[in-house]
Design a protein that fits this description.
Layout (H helix, E strand, L loop, with lengths): L14 E2 L13 E2 L11 H6 L25 H6 L2 H4 L4 H8 L16 H15 L5 H13 L3 H19 L4 H10 L8 H11 L3
Antiparallel strand pairs: 1-2
Helix pairs in contact: 5-6, 5-7, 7-8
Bound molecules: zinc ion.
Protein name: Tc1-like transposase DDE domain-containing protein
GO molecular function, one term: nucleic acid binding
InterPro entries: RNaseH_sf, Tc1-like_DDE_dom
Amino acid sequence: MNKSNGGKQRCQKDTIIPNTNPSPEFRGKVQKMTTETGEQKGLQQTLEERGFNVNRKRAKCAPVCPWENDDCCMARILSKQDDFTNQVSMLETLIKEAGHECIFLPKFHSELNPIEMYWGWVKYRYRQVQKKIFEDAKQAARAALNSCPVDVIRRFINRSWRFMDAYRVPLSGKAAAWAVRKQKGHRTISQSAMMHLDAIVHPT
Ligand SMILES: [Zn+2]
């Protein structure tokens, strides 16, 4: 979204101002995201209609500010409003409309995502290949992407399952990594590995 109304910006759906809105008088009200003249509403008007005073705020931080920030810029304030936080993305909508499930893995936990291991595998092999021109690079990328054997991919998936299993116990990051290493080849972490770990973590 831009700071001002109109111009080039993405179409936002009309929304209902959530019950957590700081100014109670706006809670539960429908908020149109287009103006009466048919322009897309910008950040400023959207926030002002919710009772925020954003006179001295910038539109967005550059570089982009961390999610933990509350009110450094208009974009961050709006992204923290419950209706925007819980907004379903275009990608998710597209996937669901095609009849698929869309599951998000926790951020910053690449060990839960087999595709990260696959990327790693592919990148390592891609780097081994001599590339003189861009066409070589494209070919090398395709070749590396296609060369990962199915049983290796299965091992990546297994590894992620073991991490999920360990976190469910719940083990901390380090303990989970240890348990996963100890349990090569099984989808779940065995009882005996858990007891072993328990003895290390809580010595009697
Ligand atoms: Zn910011």
